[in-house]
């Protein structure tokens, strides 16, 4: 999809050809601006091999993206497809890319109720058996990547929409114990990695799920268990998203219980068809995330978008009638949100005196 010059102008895009997102984020005081990516030839990427060369050039540019995350390759389904049988091929693709292009690597995710290998869900578990499976999985996976992951999403989406614990196979057998076990094990296996709780719907200060995330982390801290950060996935909506002030207030809530937070899976979906107004709303949403993170840079370390190229987004596959959630359209023209963020980063840097350093 290509938008006309008039449509881009109407949506507030002001091209700044030499400015790039990671470079600006660091100047504004963040550690990184990054993009997640997946394995070529699989899932959303499979139908678009002709785009790989141009896509890779953008992804690998160190000024554009200084961090990356494997969207799928380190999940249980792919790394331990059978009990005790490990395959790191897909995770290695992104880990090797990060090493080759000097990017920070966020690793994702050790324990999650979704994208599990079938055997995890079909086994009739005893408590001891499931404890052993969790410890083995984390020990093997985090141990294999030890020293390469700046962050680990140790636990992903353990809360239901009402802020209570999700009734996953892990919770149904072990209760809250599995949460403590996951973080205790990860801390032993990779003591240098920052350990995160990661979830969606925890970006608004009044949300019961946000309160649930605070309680979960506080439970770990009160037990003397290492947890370093909260990851706000930030799968947001162009037409209904948190204000910058709301995001700042939410970060303040997490600051009471952890030393750092990050926006870990940012995208801003639009109800199709795309039009000028929706692109404007999207641009405003992306800018609010930038502003909130930079204005709390003592705790907010960085922003990761959940891929950057619309055809590779998960959104249309999971939320029919929604799309255009990222920063590059199918023809590699940029969304107005890209230049909106560039401009806002510039304003924030200028307000800091133009010479900020990494927090």
From TrEMBL:
Keywords: Carbohydrate metabolism, Glycosidase, Hydrolase, Polysaccharide degradation, Secreted, Signal, Xylan degradation. It is found in: Secreted. The keyword Signal applies. InterPro entries: GH (IPR017853), GH10 (IPR044846), GH10_dom (IPR001000). SMART domains: Glyco_10. Belongs to the glycosyl hydrolase 10 (cellulase F) family. This is Beta-xylanase. Residues 1-19 form the signal peptide. It comes from Podospora pseudocomata. It catalyses: Endohydrolysis of (1->4)-beta-D-xylosidic linkages in xylans. It holds the Pfam family Glyco_hydro_10. The keyword Cytoplasm does not apply. Pathway: Glycan degradation; xylan degradation. Residues 36-344 form the GH10 domain.
